[in-house]
Amino acid sequence: MALLIDGIHLGKQVLVVALGIETSGKKHVLGLWQGATENTTVVKELLEDLVARGLSTERRYLFVIDGAEALRARIERVFGARAEVQRCQLHKRRNVKEYLPKNARRDYDSRMRNAYAMTEYAAAKAELEKILRQLERVNPSAARSLEEGLEETLTVHRLGIGELLRRSLATTNPIESCLSTVERVARNVKRWHGGDQPLRWTAAGLLEAEKKFRKVKGYRELTELAAKLNRHSTPQQQAA
Fold first, then answer.
1. Which pTM value belongs to this model?
2. Cα separations (Å) of 150 from 25, 103, 157?
3. Architecture of the 2-88+172-230 domain
4. Structure confidence by residue, pLDDT tens digits, 3-14
Protein backbone atom coordinates (compact mmCIF):
# COMPACT_ATOMS: atom_id res chain seq x y z
CA MET A 1 0.00 0.00 0.00
CA ALA A 2 2.89 2.33 0.87
CA LEU A 3 6.46 1.70 -0.23
CA LEU A 4 9.57 3.48 1.04
CA ILE A 5 12.78 3.16 -0.95
CA ASP A 6 16.24 4.36 0.09
CA GLY A 7 19.89 3.37 -0.12
CA ILE A 8 22.95 3.00 2.08
CA HIS A 9 26.66 3.12 1.21
CA LEU A 10 28.89 0.32 2.49
CA GLY A 11 32.42 0.38 1.17
CA LYS A 12 32.17 1.27 -2.50
CA GLN A 13 28.75 -0.32 -2.86
CA VAL A 14 25.25 1.11 -2.64
CA LEU A 15 22.57 -1.14 -1.19
CA VAL A 16 19.03 -0.09 -2.09
CA VAL A 17 16.23 -1.26 0.21
CA ALA A 18 12.46 -1.32 -0.26
CA LEU A 19 10.22 -1.23 2.81
CA GLY A 20 6.51 -1.95 2.51
CA ILE A 21 3.73 -0.87 4.86
CA GLU A 22 0.51 -2.88 4.73
CA THR A 23 -2.91 -1.60 5.73
CA SER A 24 -2.57 -3.15 9.19
CA GLY A 25 0.39 -0.83 9.82
CA LYS A 26 2.97 -3.61 9.79
CA LYS A 27 6.29 -2.96 8.06
CA HIS A 28 8.08 -5.50 5.88
CA VAL A 29 11.45 -5.43 4.15
CA LEU A 30 10.47 -6.26 0.57
CA GLY A 31 13.87 -6.49 -1.02
CA LEU A 32 17.52 -5.53 -1.21
CA TRP A 33 19.53 -4.68 -4.32
CA GLN A 34 23.24 -4.07 -4.75
CA GLY A 35 24.96 -1.64 -7.10
CA ALA A 36 27.78 0.87 -7.44
CA THR A 37 25.37 3.82 -7.27
CA GLU A 38 21.62 4.43 -7.01
CA ASN A 39 21.50 4.54 -10.79
CA THR A 40 18.77 3.74 -13.26
CA THR A 41 19.89 0.12 -13.73
CA VAL A 42 19.69 -0.73 -10.02
CA VAL A 43 16.34 1.04 -9.66
CA LYS A 44 15.00 -0.75 -12.74
CA GLU A 45 15.97 -4.14 -11.31
CA LEU A 46 14.48 -3.18 -7.94
CA LEU A 47 11.04 -2.33 -9.32
CA GLU A 48 10.97 -5.15 -11.86
CA ASP A 49 11.82 -7.65 -9.14
CA LEU A 50 9.02 -6.34 -6.91
CA VAL A 51 6.55 -6.64 -9.78
CA ALA A 52 7.79 -10.12 -10.67
CA ARG A 53 7.22 -11.20 -7.06
CA GLY A 54 3.64 -10.02 -7.06
CA LEU A 55 3.46 -6.24 -6.70
CA SER A 56 0.54 -5.34 -8.94
CA THR A 57 0.99 -2.48 -11.39
CA GLU A 58 -2.80 -2.22 -11.60
CA ARG A 59 -3.16 -0.84 -8.08
CA ARG A 60 -2.19 2.59 -6.81
CA TYR A 61 0.59 2.95 -4.25
CA LEU A 62 2.13 5.73 -2.23
CA PHE A 63 5.90 5.80 -2.81
CA VAL A 64 7.98 7.68 -0.25
CA ILE A 65 11.44 8.59 -1.55
CA ASP A 66 14.25 11.03 -0.86
CA GLY A 67 14.02 12.65 -4.29
CA ALA A 68 16.62 10.65 -6.27
CA GLU A 69 16.01 11.40 -9.94
CA ALA A 70 16.69 7.86 -11.20
CA LEU A 71 14.24 6.39 -8.72
CA ARG A 72 11.54 8.97 -9.47
CA ALA A 73 11.87 8.45 -13.23
CA ARG A 74 11.69 4.67 -12.97
CA ILE A 75 8.62 4.77 -10.72
CA GLU A 76 6.96 6.96 -13.35
CA ARG A 77 7.89 4.54 -16.12
CA VAL A 78 6.71 1.39 -14.33
CA PHE A 79 3.61 2.70 -12.53
CA GLY A 80 2.75 5.87 -14.42
CA ALA A 81 -0.28 7.71 -13.05
CA ARG A 82 -0.92 4.84 -10.63
CA ALA A 83 1.91 6.05 -8.40
CA GLU A 84 1.51 8.78 -5.82
CA VAL A 85 4.97 10.03 -4.85
CA GLN A 86 5.80 11.69 -1.54
CA ARG A 87 9.16 13.43 -1.52
CA CYS A 88 10.79 13.41 1.91
CA GLN A 89 10.08 16.71 3.64
CA LEU A 90 13.15 16.38 5.85
CA HIS A 91 15.45 15.94 2.86
CA LYS A 92 13.87 19.00 1.25
CA ARG A 93 14.53 21.09 4.36
CA ARG A 94 18.13 19.89 4.51
CA ASN A 95 18.72 20.61 0.83
CA VAL A 96 17.44 24.18 1.14
CA LYS A 97 19.54 24.81 4.26
CA GLU A 98 22.72 23.84 2.42
CA TYR A 99 22.36 26.89 0.17
CA LEU A 100 21.77 29.38 2.98
CA PRO A 101 24.29 31.24 5.16
CA LYS A 102 24.47 29.94 8.72
CA ASN A 103 22.73 32.98 10.20
CA ALA A 104 19.63 32.36 8.02
CA ARG A 105 19.34 28.58 8.25
CA ARG A 106 17.47 28.28 11.54
CA ASP A 107 14.81 30.81 10.61
CA TYR A 108 14.00 29.39 7.18
CA ASP A 109 14.15 25.80 8.40
CA SER A 110 11.75 26.63 11.23
CA ARG A 111 9.33 28.26 8.79
CA MET A 112 9.45 25.27 6.44
CA ARG A 113 8.91 22.88 9.34
CA ASN A 114 5.89 24.88 10.46
CA ALA A 115 4.49 24.92 6.94
CA TYR A 116 4.76 21.14 6.65
CA ALA A 117 3.11 20.81 10.07
CA MET A 118 -0.03 22.50 8.78
CA THR A 119 -3.05 20.28 8.33
CA GLU A 120 -4.58 21.74 5.18
CA TYR A 121 -2.91 21.26 1.81
CA ALA A 122 -3.81 24.73 0.51
CA ALA A 123 -2.48 26.49 3.61
CA ALA A 124 0.77 24.51 3.64
CA LYS A 125 1.36 25.15 -0.06
CA ALA A 126 0.61 28.87 0.28
CA GLU A 127 3.11 29.20 3.13
CA LEU A 128 5.82 27.33 1.23
CA GLU A 129 5.23 29.51 -1.84
CA LYS A 130 5.56 32.59 0.37
CA ILE A 131 8.93 31.29 1.62
CA LEU A 132 9.89 30.56 -1.99
CA ARG A 133 9.19 34.14 -3.10
CA GLN A 134 11.31 35.49 -0.26
CA LEU A 135 14.15 33.11 -1.04
CA GLU A 136 14.13 34.26 -4.66
CA ARG A 137 15.26 37.64 -3.37
CA VAL A 138 17.63 36.33 -0.69
CA ASN A 139 19.22 33.30 -2.37
CA PRO A 140 18.02 32.14 -5.81
CA SER A 141 19.82 28.78 -5.46
CA ALA A 142 17.94 28.01 -2.23
CA ALA A 143 14.73 29.07 -3.95
CA ARG A 144 15.34 26.69 -6.86
CA SER A 145 16.05 23.89 -4.39
CA LEU A 146 12.74 24.50 -2.62
CA GLU A 147 10.80 24.83 -5.87
CA GLU A 148 12.13 21.59 -7.35
CA GLY A 149 9.62 18.87 -6.52
CA LEU A 150 7.80 21.09 -4.00
CA GLU A 151 4.37 19.75 -4.99
CA GLU A 152 5.44 16.17 -4.28
CA THR A 153 6.56 17.09 -0.77
CA LEU A 154 2.87 17.83 -0.10
CA THR A 155 1.34 14.62 -1.44
CA VAL A 156 0.36 13.42 2.05
CA HIS A 157 -1.39 16.76 2.58
CA ARG A 158 -3.19 16.63 -0.76
CA LEU A 159 -4.45 13.12 -0.02
CA GLY A 160 -6.01 14.38 3.20
CA ILE A 161 -4.10 12.01 5.47
CA GLY A 162 -4.60 12.56 9.20
CA GLU A 163 -1.88 14.11 11.33
CA LEU A 164 -0.35 10.99 12.89
CA LEU A 165 -0.15 9.00 9.68
CA ARG A 166 0.93 12.07 7.74
CA ARG A 167 3.94 12.40 10.03
CA SER A 168 4.79 8.74 9.47
CA LEU A 169 4.65 8.99 5.68
CA ALA A 170 5.94 12.53 5.09
CA THR A 171 9.60 11.48 5.36
CA THR A 172 11.81 8.46 4.75
CA ASN A 173 12.48 8.18 8.49
CA PRO A 174 10.90 4.69 8.82
CA ILE A 175 13.35 3.20 6.34
CA GLU A 176 16.27 5.32 7.52
CA SER A 177 15.74 3.83 10.96
CA CYS A 178 16.30 0.39 9.40
CA LEU A 179 19.42 1.59 7.64
CA SER A 180 20.83 3.05 10.86
CA THR A 181 20.59 -0.45 12.34
CA VAL A 182 22.52 -1.76 9.34
CA GLU A 183 25.23 0.84 10.00
CA ARG A 184 25.40 -0.18 13.65
CA VAL A 185 25.65 -3.89 12.83
CA ALA A 186 28.37 -3.27 10.24
CA ARG A 187 30.33 -0.59 12.14
CA ASN A 188 33.15 -2.96 13.12
CA VAL A 189 33.94 -3.86 9.52
CA LYS A 190 37.20 -2.04 8.84
CA ARG A 191 37.90 -3.30 5.38
CA TRP A 192 35.30 -3.96 2.73
CA HIS A 193 36.02 -6.59 0.12
CA GLY A 194 34.36 -7.06 -3.23
CA GLY A 195 31.61 -9.50 -4.05
CA ASP A 196 28.59 -9.87 -1.82
CA GLN A 197 30.13 -8.88 1.54
CA PRO A 198 28.23 -5.54 1.75
CA LEU A 199 25.07 -7.34 0.65
CA ARG A 200 25.38 -9.95 3.40
CA TRP A 201 26.07 -7.37 6.12
CA THR A 202 23.11 -5.27 4.98
CA ALA A 203 20.85 -8.31 5.04
CA ALA A 204 22.05 -9.14 8.56
CA GLY A 205 21.34 -5.60 9.69
CA LEU A 206 17.86 -5.63 8.18
CA LEU A 207 17.04 -8.90 9.94
CA GLU A 208 18.13 -7.28 13.19
CA ALA A 209 15.99 -4.21 12.45
CA GLU A 210 12.93 -6.35 11.74
CA LYS A 211 13.00 -7.67 15.31
CA LYS A 212 12.10 -4.20 16.56
CA PHE A 213 9.53 -3.25 13.94
CA ARG A 214 6.41 -1.59 15.29
CA LYS A 215 3.26 -0.50 13.54
CA VAL A 216 3.50 2.98 12.06
CA LYS A 217 1.85 5.75 14.03
CA GLY A 218 -1.60 6.51 12.71
CA TYR A 219 -1.95 3.02 11.20
CA ARG A 220 -5.72 3.00 11.79
CA GLU A 221 -6.01 5.52 8.93
CA LEU A 222 -4.25 3.26 6.43
CA THR A 223 -7.44 1.48 5.38
CA GLU A 224 -9.00 4.83 4.51
CA LEU A 225 -5.86 5.84 2.60
CA ALA A 226 -5.94 2.57 0.63
CA ALA A 227 -9.56 3.27 -0.29
CA LYS A 228 -8.65 6.78 -1.48
CA LEU A 229 -5.79 5.49 -3.59
CA ASN A 230 -7.86 2.73 -5.17
CA ARG A 231 -11.35 4.17 -5.10
CA HIS A 232 -12.10 2.84 -8.59
CA SER A 233 -10.83 -0.67 -7.85
CA THR A 234 -13.05 -3.62 -7.09
CA PRO A 235 -13.15 -4.89 -3.47
CA GLN A 236 -11.11 -7.91 -4.61
CA GLN A 237 -8.40 -5.67 -6.07
CA GLN A 238 -8.27 -3.52 -2.92
CA ALA A 239 -7.78 -6.61 -0.78
CA ALA A 240 -5.06 -8.06 -3.01
1. 0.91
2. 27, 24, 12
3. 2-Layer Sandwich (3.30)
4. 999 989 888 888
